[in-house]
Amino acid sequence: MNIYLESVNLDEIRNAASAGLADGVAFSRTASSANAADANTRERLEEISREFAFPVCVPVGAVTSSDIYTEARELAKVSDHVVVQIPLVEDSLVPMARLTAEGVVVCATFVFSAAQAFIAAKAGAAVVRVTLDELDNYGQPATRTLAEIKSALEAGGEECDVMAASPRSAVQFAECALAGADIVCLTPDALRNLIVHPLSDRGIDRFLSELARRPKSRTPT
């Protein structure tokens, strides 16, 4: 299972990548402007793509067929590492298929059911993004839905990765792995929280206490 860091901060990406904890990057929801193809977004996309040789997911800021295609093509020109995130709406299916045929890697967003995931995959999406916190807020069991999506894609013979976005806890992160998620998308804070556990803190305190009580070895003269 790969981890994508939901950040456009170069230092945060460097820190995670140096520890082997970043297999890709997804532009965060707060960092994504209303027009994802604007100058600032393009500049940051170029910086990340130059420094890191892994996928960079960036959303288009459009919902009509012609605008989706045009913005996606412009974003894809920046780097071969770009994965264009396109909202799954009726008008996006034709540009998804067209872009895929032209070699652009597409991630379908706003996917919340196995049926939607299957349609997106048939239209050419290489990845479907399932936002867990939105499912939980809606009252739909997030990781169970994730498992259903993964099973439906495999049963239908569709080669499409499932991205689980925004797990709320370490437990839900583990559930994503058990549900078969190919990618989990996390903020830097959420990634750090995976390392923390009360028993780990107790163990470190105990270790330091024992270390402090050990007699110091004498330095030979």
What is the compact description of this entry?
With 221 residues, the chain is of the alpha/beta class. It is 48% helix and 17% strand.
Explain this structure to me?
- Helices cover 48% and strands 17% of the residues.
- It has ten helices and eight strands.
- It has helices at 10-18, 39-51, 65-76, 93-101, 114-122, 132-138, 142-155, 170-178, 188-195, 198-213; strands spanning 2-6, 24-26, 56-59, 82-87, 105-109, 127-131, 161-165, 183-186.
- An eight-stranded parallel barrel has the order 1-2-3-4-5-6-7-8, surrounded by eight helices.
- The longest helix is centred in the C-terminal third of the chain and has 16 residues, at 198-213.
- It is globular, with a radius of gyration of 21 Å.
Oligomer kind: single chain
What distance separates the N and C termini?
54 Å
| Amount of helix | 40-55%
Order of helices and strands: EHEHEHEHEHEHHEHEHH
- CATH topology assignment: TIM Barrel
Largest sheet: 8 strands, parallel, barrel
How much of the polypeptide forms β-strand, as a percent range?
15-25%
- What is the CATH architecture term? Alpha-Beta Barrel
Fourth CATH level, the homologous superfamily: Aldolase class I
Gross geometry: globular
Identify the strand order in the major beta sheet. Answer: 1-2-3-4-5-6-7-8
- Global structural class: alpha/beta
